[in-house]
Structures are given as C-alpha cells and as structure tokens.
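QA checklist item 7 of 12: single-chain prediction sanity check.
[x] sequence parsed
[x] length recorded as 432
[x] structure emitted
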Amino acid sequence: VDNMGKTLAYVWANRLIFYKALRTRFPDLRRLELRRSIKKPDEALAAFNRFFQKAVDRSGDYEPLLMPEGKDWAAGLVFHPPNALDAWRGMLRGIESVDFREVSSDVVGRIFQKLIGPEERHRYGQHFTGDDVVDLINGFCIRGASDVVLDPACGSGSFLVRAYYRKRELDQSRSHIDLIGELFGCDIALYPAHLATLNLAAREINEEANYPRIARRNFFDIKPDRPFCQIPGAGMSAEQRGVTLPALDAVVGNPPYVRQEKVEKKDKTRFAELVSDAWPDLHLSGRSDLHCYFWPAAARLLKPDGYFGFLTSSSWLDVEYGFGLQGWILRHFRILAVMESAAEPWFEDARVKTCVTILQRCDDEKKRMANRVRFVRFNRKLAEIIGIPPSEDESARQAAVERLRERILNTTGDYQGEDLRIVVKVQQDLWN
C-alpha cells in the first residue's frame, strides 16, 4: 500500500511537470495553480483535470500521459491527507523554475528507483542504471549520429535519454524528429514505459511530431515483420499508425535480472524456442537466468556489423548455464570488452556482481578468432575517470567517454594502471 501511494503521487507529479513543459510550446495554456478557494480533494482533482483537458485539446496529443478523463477510485487520494493541498501548491511553485529540456539525465528514473523498495526491485529484477555506466556502454556501441538504437528493457529510459544526447553531439545539425525516430524502447511494465515516453518527449516539447517509439510489451513478443509500436498519424483526428523496427545499429541496455527459478517453466520453453529459431546453433540451459534470453532475442535484430552492449550479472562468465551463451557469442561476435568495477556497484543495491559486455556482430570467422578481447577492471569510479558530469558540458563529456573507449580498444597487451587494469586475450584462445 505504501508503494502504491508513493507511485500514485509520483504519477501526479509527472503529469504536472509535463503540463508545464507543454506550456513552452503552447504559451496560451494557463499556468498551473490551485487557488486558495479550492479546499476539497474533489475540487482539486477537477481543477487539474480541466488544465489537462485543455492541454490535450490544444496540442491534439499526449492524452495517454495527461489522462484528463481517467476516472478511478484512487486518482484523487493524493489530495485527501491533511495539508496535502498546501503540499501540492508548494510542488507547483517548485517546478516553475525547472526546464525539463535542459536536464540531460534520467532524473525521473532516479526518483522512481527511490519510490520502489529494494525487495520489490529484486523480485522483478529492476535496477536503475547510472549515467556513467550508461554513457560507457553507449560510447562503445553508438558510433554514428544516425544510428538506430534499441533498449529491449528500457525502464524509465536511461539508455535512450543518454543515447539522444550522444547522437545529438555526434551531429548537432540533426533535428529532434530524426533523433526521436531512431530510438526504440520496450518495457513490459506500463509505468516505466510511461516514464520513458515522458522522458524522451520532454527533450524538445516544441516539435510537432514528438512521438517516442516506446512499446509497452513483453520484448519476447516483438516480431521484426510486425509493428513495434503505434504512434499518432498526421492531424488531430488521424488514426494511429504502426512503426516497424528497422535493422539496428546498436542494442544497449540493462535487462531484468531474474534468477532462473523465478521464471515460469512455460515462459522458459517459449523463450528458448524463440532464440533457437533465430540462432539454430544456440541451446540455452533450462537453468539460465532471464537476462540470458535477452541477448540472442535482441541480437537477432542487429545489422551484420552492429554493436551490442549489456550490463548484466556476471554469473554467465563462471557458471555452467553460461557455457552455451559463451559459445554462441564466440561463433557470431567479436568480443570487444568485458568490464567490471572494483570501485563501485553499477547496480546501486543489487546483490550480484555485474559486468558490461561489448560485442560486435561478425560473420567472418578469421576476423573473430584474430580479435583481441579486453577484460577490464576499473579501480576508480567511472565518474572520476570520465571527469565531467553529464549535465555540465555534454560535448566535453562525450569526448571524454570516447577517449576512455579508445584507450581500452587501443591496448594490445596486458596493462596495469591507477585507473584500470586490462588483460588482453586473443579470441581464438577463448574458443579453444
């Protein structure tokens, strides 16, 4: 009940922030306020819904985010406690100075993480990913300004928001519409999918066709020849149109960490059939954790030379069920780097060791086997190594991430330094 109450309050906060962002595009919309004459919860609910309905009518869009006609027994509960209306008035004053477009991080994701208790996140394998490791993965995998990027378990949109800024820095002449149209996210849970949509749409609220490609679905139901998601067509009364997922330049993300005993047997069977259809040489053990199925299911959508970067539990490197995954990787990819940190947990409250794995699809066996694999251990926090916070100087930060990437990829022999240690192995040796 406590989690439900917090989440309900947070949904309202999101709606209020998004309405404020819409006012930068439609200045004739009234400033949000709760007049002192409003003293009852039902009056507050009705007042806000009038604001939201006008925003939907004026923009011709965003009804799923603002929900002005959503009627349920819980919607107005946030206004019932003593002093609640004054607290919401304070919140409205607080957001007046905030320009959501200037916040280059997944701030809503950070707040979301604090609202959901650790036990619940462990149960569903949901762990928020910080900007530093996200930018590290994106820096390895997103090489061009027009790259098409997918996060198959996007949560509140951390990887996609940071991918947006990376792609924009790679070519500042490209439009918001181009960038939004090349970022795809999927999440099985309604609320994180709602957050990811809000997070991306708020990057440039002034654009007309501002429709993030976020699918609220089980990723294992995605079929390449079927629409990935629906977005509104042109004009206020236009029907929605399906968007098909193009061939991908990059797959990035932090798939849910759910231990194999928590995955239902029928789901395991279905996931295993899906990945073996896509990759006939891959047969995952029935003891594989959930994230193992995400690797081949997402990689089947990559271009022949596309990049792949996941933050996962590192157990697949050591345990028996990981052998099938290792063999599949060696047969289809150049392994660019496997990275872990001795200085910080990349899942803030996870109970597992984690690693970042960077791959590039490669059908040429000679190239694969001659490839040098870098096993990297960071001895200092990534924030200290990168040196520039994400909202301070985006251009300088992306350049710093690229320097770190090249430093790792240009290392041809074992290296030990203050910041990191690199052990280099020829891929043929790993195969042997």
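[x] summary fact logged: The first strand starts at residue 149 and ends at 151.
[ ] second reviewer sign-off
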